[in-house]
Amino acid sequence: MEDLARHLLAPEREYLAIAYKDEFVGTIGTETIDLASGKAEMRKLVGKPQMRGKGIGKRATFLFLYHAFAIRGYEKIYLHTLDANIRNLNLNANFGFILEGVFFEDVVVDGARRDVVRMALTEPVWRKMFE
Fold it and tell me: Helix 123-130 vs helix 56-66: angle between axes, to the nearest 10 degrees?
């Protein structure tokens, strides 16, 4: 548990809690913050399987993007997801994220090599969509 706390609280990361009906259900935040270029990698996890599919991740993403662009002043938010995670790919596309690239056979999941997709959203695109 100490290792997780140390990871989440490191200065190059910024995480927020995701709550649903006053219950902690996950985290959303940034890794690999690059202040010089104004970009950061978004990470999100709704940890309890029974909480998925309720729109929690969608609302958390909306609020996080506001936080990232309007409050923190980032110019670009990017993310990585498995190529077969269609729900996440669609969610991100609906927020304006576009495909930046594919990392072929980049990770091993359950003993099988899987592709990873990188998507990104810039502040001007976000602002135009949500102002």
Answer: 110
